From TrEMBL:
It comes from the Eukaryota. Its cofactor is heme. Keywords: Heme, Iron, Metal-binding, Monooxygenase, Oxidoreductase. SUPFAM superfamilies: Cytochrome P450. Heme binds at C441. Belongs to the cytochrome P450 family. Pfam families: p450. CDD domains: CYP7_CYP8-like. GO terms for molecular function: heme binding; iron ion binding; oxidoreductase activity, acting on paired donors, with incorporation or reduction of molecular oxygen; steroid hydroxylase activity. This is Cytochrome P450.
Length: 499
């Protein structure tokens, strides 16, 4: 793959210069630099994600070929008022507007709070089961990431889809992770004869999701505007199914591909992120002490203070650093007509894309320098939980390259009681794990809830010891460009319930 070659093309040509890549009949334009990427985010009306989403649904999630017609005929845009000159569709057939409305409305505010609180309650229950009958004794585990995956997946899916999905499909977790193991080969469009096991895994996963879709539709009752019901689970899943079911020509197989993508989006990336948050914390004793200090006041009387956790500068920075270091995604846009990007003209129909992996490791943008409170270098290839923290009295702190050209050679006096602030603003256009602009990932707030509160529950309920040291756990780059890359190593260790 061109973007994995060494030296990387951005080193040869520099950033900010669009690089054309011819891939068969596809015209790809590689975009780098914060200013260019922010320009893509600002021009939502001029750029579309339809071609990339059609490929994703067909290649990765097995959508029928006929879904292309439904998605491509809707050129009316994301706003309530259709784009001038767009196709005259009934409002119920406006796929993009309706999906944007349903997802963004129901993944924030009270709907988000309901979904997140159910995830936390479910996860607490799953974690309690781990120590049944052990009476505070240590127990060993062979693979920490697998343990996290097992307990978090059920908690997440039940919060999203309701409890009946596992009654109906007892092996649903196995079907999901078998599919997930093949997701990169599928997304790359490899044919069935080349990866038959991958297609079989996807077929089984889709069949299971289709079975649950039908079950939920047949059993669900009219529950008005309720945030949750036992058959569809969350309001976002119920309203999404209702909206898609009204679109002319939208079949049960199309709905299965959509639902499978939704479930994967809520678990396939965030569960590895929870694992990384825990691994990075547990292998650094001083960081673990600091994190426990943040969590403990929020866990009085065994109740998580969610707002306190989510507003913690350290926990937000830790989560953001996991996304910076462990995420590899592409942000794609296609011009509806010839598009002017700075002094460059991008032809209509080209696929413009940027790489989070490379933008989030650019030493001309990001800070890897010593700071007053941490007077050692912090390479961008290493994890540094405090990278997104800024102190008013420290010009060397914060995620972006310091404006000062000097380095701290000795510790000048600084206020040891000063509280840091969390910020991503200085690296806008470079920190892009969720994309950006009007088409930013609607699940980003739920992802933050899951990761920070999930980590807090593990650490507040259990003492955990891992048989690895900081920096020893590798990413599985088989999942490159697939989101948060899981750990490659099996990590053994032991844990016990906190008293």
């Amino acid at each position: 793959m061109l973007l994995k070659t060494n030296p990387h093309p951005r080193r040869k040509f520099g950033t900010g210069i669009p690089l054309r890549i011819k891939l068969g009949s596809r015209n790809l334009i590689y975009i780098s630099s914060p200013s260019a990427i922010l320009a893509l985010f600002r021009h939502s009306k001029d750029l579309t994600t339809i071609p990339s989403i059609v490929r994703l649904l067909q290649n990765t999630f097995g959508a029928p070929k006929s879904i292309r017609m439904i998605l491509e005929r809707d050129n009316t845009g994301l706003s309530q008022t259709p784009i001038d000159g767009s196709n005259p569709l009934a409002e119920k057939d406006r796929y993009w507007y309706n999906m944007h409305r349903v997802l963004h409305t129901n993944l924030q505010g009270t709907s988000l709070e309901e979904l997140s609180s159910r995830f936390i309650k479910n996860l607490e229950g799953e974690l309690e089961k781990l120590c049944d009958g052990l009476e505070g004794n240590w127990f060993d585990f062979p693979d920490f990431s697998e343990l996290v995956r097992r307990v978090c997946f059920k908690a997440s899916v039940v919060a999203l889809c309701g409890p009946h999905i596992f009654d109906l499909l007892p092996n649903f977790a196995d079907l999901f992770w078998d599919f997930d193991a093949n997701i990169i080969d599928l997304s790359n469009g490899k044919p069935r004869w080349l990866i038959p096991n991958g297609y079989r895994a996807r077929d089984r996963y889709l069949a299971a999701v289709k079975k649950w879709n039908l079950f939920a539709k047949e059993n669900a009752r009219d529950c008005g505007d309720a945030e949750w019901d036992e058959f569809y689970g969350s309001k976002v899943m119920r309203e999404r199914a209702q909206v898609l079911g009204k679109i002319e020509g939208f079949s049960a197989d199309m709905l299965a591909s959509q639902t499978s993508a939704m479930i994967w989006g809520a678990s396939g990336n965030i569960i590895p992120a929870i694992s990384w948050c825990l691994i990075e914390t547990l292998t650094r004793p001083s960081l673990l002490t600091s994190v426990l200090q943040e969590i403990t006041p929020s866990s009085a009387a065994d109740i998580l203070n969610i707002s306190s956790l989510l507003s913690s500068p350290l926990l937000q920075s830790l989560f953001s650093e996991v996304l910076r270091l462990r995420t590899s995604v592409t942000v794609q846009r296609t011009p509806r007509s010839d598009f002017q990007l700075g002094s460059y003209k991008i032809p209509k129909g080209s696929v413009m894309f940027s790489s989070s992996w490379h933008e989030q490791r650019d030493p001309t943008i990001w800070n890897e320098s010593p700071t007053l409170r941490s007077p050692v270098p912090h390479p961008l290839t290493d994890f540094w939980a405090e990278r997104f923290l800024i102190y008013d009295d420290d010009p060397y702190s914060g995620p972006s390259l310091p404006s000062t050209t000097t380095s701290p050679t000795s510790k000048p006096p600084y206020d040891t009681t000063m509280k840091p602030k969390f910020t991503i603003t200085p690296v806008s256009g470079s920190f892009i794990p969720f994309g950006g602009g009007k088409k930013v990932c609607p699940g980003r707030f739920y992802a933050k809830y899951e990761a920070i509160c999930g980590m807090a529950l593990f650490l507040s309920m259990y003492e955990i010891e891992l048989d690895v040291k900081a920096g020893e756990v590798e990413m599985n780059k088989k999942f490159f460009f697939g989101g948060v890359m899981p750990s490659k190593n099996k990590i053994s260790g032991r844990m016990r319930r906190r008293l």
